[in-house]
Amino acid sequence: MLVLRSRIFGIWLGALCGLLVSCGPDEPTSYPKPTTFVPDSPPPGLGFPNLPWPQDNPPSVEGVALGKRLFFDKTLSLDYTVSCASCHHPNRAFSDTVVYSKGIGGALGKFNAMPLFNLLWANRFFWDGRSPNLRDQVLQPIQDPVEMHLSLGQALGRLSGDQAYRVAFGKAFGDESITIQRLQWALEQYLLSLTSYRSRFDLSRMGLANLTPSEQRGFDLFMREYSAPGSGRPVGADCFHCHGTALFTNRSFENNGLDSVLKPGFQVVTGLASDRGKFKTPSLRNVGLTAPYMHDGRFATLEEVVEHYNSGVQSSSTLNANLRVQNGGLRLSPQDKADLVAFLQSLTDTTLALNPHFVAP
Ligand code: HEC
Ligand code: HEC
User: 112, 118, 249, 305: which to mutate for ligand 2, most atoms within 8 A of CB?
Assistant: First the structure.
């Protein structure tokens, strides 16, 4: 009871402080200009598209640090038990190990938690793409009743009641006022700073490592088009149409043949029947760390995923044309399948979990 009362008092005090400019005699009301943050960007040789940060939210060292602090802070959930990192584990490329992550009170969501990296290059967020940008996205888990279940008013009250947060917002944005927009900006800065481009595959591209013969064969299969029986051409796994480029995603929404009875998917955004059953094509970077797989976590292993493409593709009205022509499946040999999985494992960036910038503060 005492704890509860002091918490309520904290919220009250926070709300008061939010109204007044300064709360204590020692706190400065304005802060020096934040330090420019230099993003850890992939070298040009790797072929990532050159994209600018959002111009109205230039990253600062203090802004990224504040975003990180918010990301790992359970204060942003109703009963102080869940943070963003509860479902997005840094050592799993910021994804979760379970099919459906537990939110507040153990409630389960409807989708498998997505990994978080290279988000600068993503153009829509969530499996069905319903969020158009990160600053919109970050407010959704906070308020979602099965995730963190905190109203934005409560979030502001709690943060404003915490002197350390007032100072952190001051350092990041020049003064101590804590607003929804600044909360969005700080989380957006942190999320955009999470880049990943140091897998063994990347090192091999830069001449700093060699792929094993099996990984190299897997890559060749990945990049080769499907060949119909009797065509005389070597077998191809035809993955690059959707998972091509340095990003290992076409940054689009596709139906990869998981179901014959379609869920809405991208249709929730466009309203078009032709987008039914389409989901965000995930990057395959770090896929060795992000099991279980697909929007509903239905596959536990990469072997199962490869077998899906080899023999399990379901026909439906919006099935991708490249998969539609693969009548009877890819016809990969056991060795082909093993090589594909070996290649996928070479896309793991083992530096992620070691990067002090990425792990819990
Ligand atoms: C209870 C588990 C849970 C919590 C807590 C949670 N997330 Fe998520 N996150 C998910 C799930 C599940 C998805 C996919 C949901 C969907 O597609 O509808 C997701 C998707 C995302 C995406 C979209 C990624 C993409 O590539 O489209 C971002 C960004 C994200 N979360 C950031 C956050 C942030 C920031 C927080 C904290 C404010 C947070 N998440 C809290 C489970 C969680
Ligand atoms: C038609 C486009 C398309 C093709 C071709 C394709 N994929 Fe996918 N892939 C997707 C989409 C879309 C998803 C997510 C689907 C979902 O969850 O509903 C996905 C998911 C995956 C996942 C799970 C990733 C995760 O984080 O859950 C893996 C692994 C994968 N694909 C590997 C491959 C491999 C290997 C090939 C070639 C044999 C391939 N894909 C061919 C579109 C495609």
Answer: 305
Contact status, residue 285 vs residue 248, Cβ threshold 8 Å = yes
φ, ψ of residue 145 in degrees (nearest 5): -60, -25
Residue 232 zone, left/alpha/beta (φ > 0; ψ -120 to 50; rest): left
pLDDT interval class at 13 (50, 70, 90):
very low
How far apart are alpha carbons 344 and 295 in whole angstroms?
A: 18
Closest by CA position to 315, among listed 328, 303, 296: 328
Residue 110 has a CB neighbour count (10 Å cut-off) of: 10
Lowest mean pLDDT among 201-205, 224-228, 270-274: 224-228
Atom of ligand 2 nearest to the CA of 238: 37
Other beta carbons within 10 Å of 26: 7
Confidence of residue 26 (pLDDT cuts 50, 70, 90): low
